[in-house]
């Protein structure tokens, strides 16, 4: 089982930092824009059968080919063409049967016994880069590209050269604020086309991670291991185990610390001038420590202890923090000391007082006369999920806090694939939903029917909850045609509350069903004045004609609801 400590816990919508403006759709690269225009097919409800992954191919050895002189260089459009030929990377017969044979047929991974098949698209950068030639602008481009098509995919894979991969991973972890979907970065030491290559396993593993697991953060997948992105560092230019995450379990091993040679007085001047200095270790294992005189002297000179952050994470975190123009100097310093995305281990006040044993665990352990801590641990693992779901349905926030501090996984699923957020969204308790979102619950988790918490909240007309979920980046996944159908049936049932739910969830209320009928046609047909008034206030078009060439006003007249036809006329005037 894959466990993750979610790092996204804000109620804001996903955004990209480093001073990047809100993404302008016209700036989305052509191929991505192409996907945008085929949004309909991507959002088709049938699609819940597969998860969707976008592979952003930026360059690196993984897609390079040896030239006549034996030198490696990337060749445009070579990667996807080759992948289509590898049966273990693309199931052509499944893809053709499901999606037909057109220019936009996705690649599909063969059945890996995961929940759903994973369909994926490769978006190739131009030019393809050796990562040692990448700059901060390239990090920004990747972040913007992900933001631009964020709602259309369940996860993202970034194919990247290994030389600066850890820097990009750290940078993206800070830049992609409130990330709710997996972003997996990978590459290889040997090109994917060569007989012996780590590239194929890294590629397939990353696509599976991005498509089948709910790990909403920036990670690095390499040599069969998934690392937190901002914890990784490149450790070898030649070995297939090119990356490591020395200070993050399960690889963290206590070791000796490093002492730096510094001239403290030079440093004190700098911090007085408002320069932010961070002390990090180059060592693989361990953290900078103030038990040494030199370390203590650095702290007294105003240098921030970077604890066990990798130099890659420290550099990119600094760039991120410095670019935050709305933070003053003290806030920036405080943020550098705080664990923002799981990039460093902060022990101390945050942990104090937590981890008190749950009363019920203690009681059962006593009743069973358990003496070993392993046995108590097992009882806790068994009980915590049940207690957690019970606290959610009882809306018991105090209990939720207590269970959470005892290790409850906030995105845990029950047998029907429901998370605690699905449950709270169904009950419509905004307080619990807010608590879950603040503690890292993902709004993108789907149950076995492919339903998100947002869909559940909409279907139960919990408007406040719908609003909270949308603010956190949730979005509807139905195609416009399917939306047309549900809106028409809501209006036909005189259900204005449902129309409001869809409206708050961001649905376009003018969507038509397969007969060309809109919610306004249906409301006029059945004579629902409340629905007609609501739709007109929402500004839906009034002149749309259905397949039988009727406008909503004509439907009202045919069914003897002349007053509704008049309402529409007044609106048109
Ligand atoms: N293995 C690699 O990908 C190294 C290559 N020079 C790069 O970083 O792009």
UniProtKB/TrEMBL annotation:
This is asparaginase. It comes from the Eukaryota. Keywords: ANK repeat. Its EC number is 3.5.1.1. Residues 265-336 form the Asparaginase/glutaminase C-terminal domain. It is an enzyme of class 3 (hydrolase). The keyword Chloroplast does not apply. GO terms for biological process: aspartate family amino acid metabolic process. Substrate binds at residues 131, 162-163. ANK repeats lie at residues 416-448, 449-481, 515-547. GO terms for molecular function: asparaginase activity. The active site is at residues 61, 162. The lineage of its organism: Eukaryota, Metazoa, Ecdysozoa, Arthropoda, Crustacea. Residues 52-255 form the L-asparaginase N-terminal domain. SUPFAM superfamilies: Ankyrin repeat (SSF48403), Glutaminase/Asparaginase (SSF53774).
